[in-house]
Amino acid sequence: MREIVHISTGQCGNQIGAAFWETICGEHGLDFDGAYHGKDDIQNSKLDVYFNHASSDRYVPRAILVDLEPGTVDTIRASKLGNLFRPDNFVNGQSSAGNVWAKGHYTEGAELVEAVMDVIRKETEACDSLQGFQITHSLGGGTGSGMGTLLISRIREEFPDRMMATFSVVPSPKVSDTVIEPYNATLSVHQLVEHSDETFCIDNEALYNICQNTLKMPLPSYEQLNSLVSLVMSGVTTSLRYPGQLNSDLRKLAVNLVPFPRLHFFMVGYAPLTAIGSTSFRSLTVPELTQQMFESKNMMAALDPRNGRYLTVAAFFRGKVSVKEVEDEMHKVQTRNADYFVEWIPNNVQTAVCSVPPKGLDMAATFIANSTSIQGLFKRVGDQFSAMFRRKAFLHWYTSEGMEEIEFTEAESNMNDLVSEYQQYQDASVEEDEDLEFCGEEQPLNDQIE
């Protein structure tokens, strides 16, 4: 039944992963021991997408928790979720990547990767029809970025025809956890461009802004930030977990959202986001949700989509929603804001509807956009990278693990190419391509667009 294997790597990845599983269990009527208490058949009809049904009539998440140090994994093991996961699926080392990408990718991580691959093989062998993998990690640290991308490339080698979705926490513009974040992020993006099929970009600063400005929480904790991310992850995966009117899976999502293989970095948004206590003052309607989810303040990456153009958009509506109303609203948005959508992909908004709303709400919407404004994120990281790399600052932490400077140069130029590709498609118009019909079929698009 189209199973998905979930892998959490590093501290950030494990914390987001734990929040995701907590949300999913709540939605499907499972307690934290994996026992099913649901009231409705629809809750357990597609449980096997994310859970294995064990002999003791309990459901066990198809999740693997990986870290190079025992701390975070032990915390999860001791938490209320600890009994949910299979004990063999906790894989951790005893050292740490110390926020250095090279340690995660080449030395410490490479020692642990075989143990993780064994667990992944075990999980995939128990699947009837594996759909793909989803990975939660951050790009700024050492384990999530270095070992996370190592795992992605290893999984890619072993399962070349399966989908690879990553939920990646990218460095924020103002909030920085480590000084060498730009190095780690650039080296990771270099890998993700090649090996991932869809990457959902999330950043802490945008999450802080949502918590403080929209949800009116003065001092949001990481737990609250993570629960925001889990809302989006739950929204993105809704149509995989419930039988809906319009269904979509990871592959259909990629087919609809990725016009060119390298451009698979998405911005995500969620609606309704309203402060606790003010929900009774707003009506939840399809137009209201649509308006909210296109607003930049609902985006989970600190970027304004109005600085670029949408290549493609996918919207997932949940609850008692009329499909026709959703289609009409989406059409209205497209016609009213035609300038913000590239005209050379007609009908570039895809919608999916699921009749089961999230817990505690009547309806909700999740928004995924492949927008050229995401280049702002890569530009920002690239500028910080160049500033440090020009002076060769902090480079010894990487070269001492066996890396060479050429890798940095390659990663930098790959990211710069990505930025210019986004820019090129943002500027491309239908008129410029009129002569395409007379060109040879094999000629790539960028040869004609100058």
UniProtKB/TrEMBL annotation:
InterPro entries: Beta-tubulin_BS (IPR013838), Beta_tubulin (IPR002453), Tub_FtsZ_C (IPR008280), Tubulin (IPR000217), Tubulin/FtsZ-like_C (IPR037103), Tubulin/FtsZ_2-layer-sand-dom (IPR018316), Tubulin/FtsZ_GTPase_sf (IPR036525), Tubulin_C (IPR023123). It holds the Pfam family Tubulin_C. Its cofactor is Mg(2+). Residues 246-383 form the Tubulin/FtsZ 2-layer sandwich domain. Residues 431-440 have a biased composition (Acidic residues). One of its GO terms (cellular component) is microtubule. Keywords: Cytoplasm, Cytoskeleton, GTP-binding, Magnesium, Metal-binding, Microtubule, Nucleotide-binding. Tubulin is the major constituent of microtubules, a cylinder consisting of laterally associated linear protofilaments composed of alpha- and beta-tubulin heterodimers. Microtubules grow by the addition of GTP-tubulin dimers to the microtubule end, where a stabilizing cap forms. Below the cap, tubulin dimers are in GDP-bound state, owing to GTPase activity of alpha-tubulin. Dimer of alpha and beta chains. A typical microtubule is a hollow water-filled tube with an outer diameter of 25 nm and an inner diameter of 15 nM. Alpha-beta heterodimers associate head-to-tail to form protofilaments running lengthwise along the microtubule wall with the beta-tubulin subunit facing the microtubule plus end conferring a structural polarity. Microtubules usually have 13 protofilaments but different protofilament numbers can be found in some organisms and specialized cells. This is Tubulin beta chain. It comes from Metschnikowia bicuspidata.
